[in-house]
Amino acid sequence: MLLTEHNTYYCGYTDNLEKRFRLHCEGKGAKYTRANKPLKIVYFKEFDNKSDAMKEEIRLKKLSHKEKDILLTKEN
Hints:
mainly alpha; single chain; GIY-YIG endonuclease; globular; 4 helices
């Protein structure tokens, strides 16, 4: 999960976190991050397979902004 300059979160999955973050910062990662410049990676979790990673992405996207803030507080 990325924190953007507009204090929003972007959630996604990847098999190469650093490369994907760099692409987002360059405006090549996703339409959302072209309009909402990413500042930093605030949460990530590793999975053994793509299916489980996608399930976590869906779960995170269903959370409200406040719920994501609480999740991040618990993780740090």
